[in-house]
Write a structure and sequence with these properties.
- This is Putative N6-adenine-specific DNA methylase.
- With about 400 residues, this protein is α/β, with parallel strands linked by helices.
- The chain contains 12 helices and 15 strands.
- Strand 2 and strand 3 form a beta hairpin.
- It has an 8-stranded mixed β-sheet. A 7-stranded mixed β-sheet has the order 11-10-9-12-13-15-14, covered by helices on one side.
- The chain folds into 2 domains: about 150 residues, VC0802-like, CATH 3.30.2130; about 160 residues, Rossmann fold (3-Layer(aba) Sandwich).
Length: about 400
Amino acid sequence: MPQNYVIFARYFTRTMEENFNMVAKTLFGFEELLANELTQLGAKDVKAGVRNVAFSGDKGFMYKCNLALRTAVKILKPIHSFTVSSEKDLYDKIYAMDWSQFLKPTGTLAVDATIHSDLFSHSLYIAQKTKDAIVDKFRDTDGQRPNVDLKFPDLKINVHIDRHQCTISLDSSGDSLHKRGYKTATNIAPINEVLAAGLIMLSGWDGQTDFMDPMCGSGTMLIEAAMIACNIPPNLMRKEFAFERWQDWDVELFEKIEESLLGKTRDFHHKIIGYDKAPSAVTKAKENVKNAQLDDFIEIKHEDFFKTQKGGEEKLHMVFNPPYGERLNIDMEEFYANIGDTLKQSYPGTDAWFITSNLDALKHVGLRPSRKIQLFNAKLESRLVKYVMYEGSKKGKYMK
């Protein structure tokens, strides 16, 4: 068969692939952001839930989601759903599934479980029971059984039980998607990459102004901002996705999708600036920026934010993650009062956003936030707050 016919046949087969249901997991408060991301990527049947968004697409779209979504932490592919009444019922129904289409008898697997049910109390036990059913099935049918590999399994399986409903999914991502691959150096309290990207997106920054993180730590906010500004897929630098070990892994399709996404990057004509008063943080941030290959867009300086002033008269967009007092021994009331004073006196023409879980300290900023958004930073209930610093007084602005 001529080469061009072979290529056409492969392309036709891929375009005829059926869509299947998927679930993208995210952080609380980011559901609508993620739903919008999925819609813009081309997802079908998008429906936001709590900490997740359901959607449909084909295999290539699954690859695309893992590469391109900024606010997703996992992409799951549900393969079976059933009601469950007991541990034995769970075992029997998982045993009855045809696992040979997903895993070889000589392969490796890992199972994790999330439980919201009065029937079961321990997720680790449910994961163990699921693993037992799968390996027993292989041993009974093939005479050999897969082994467990928690770090690099050929198949990562997710069990979700909500009351009496059990859903078995394949985890297409593997490690959480917040592990972008660029961060080799961290500080005491590094911000999660997905959280950082979501905060910037919630703040409405579109890459059309200068951006600043005045307490940049290991540089996560700066790097995520640069990738948003340039429309760079956030997970290009990951070493591996779980789907690369699946039996239907299509490297050619993956590379075409990767190439297509890279073709949609854009230029950025403003500044992204980071300050930190700790020399060690500045060193780590610069290392991570270099790893992300974003040196051309990001400038990091050793500065104490409280001793700085805004440079120039152009609009400035600021997003940062100040200390909460959870791990750092500082006077929170004074620290947050200094944030308010510095913004008010030294940063006119600035939209300043920051996240905090220290709701008492927030009262000492001395400014009235124009927006408050409830979020969680890990398990800490937090607020993302916005302060608008006008040029001159607010009264003066309306008098012009």
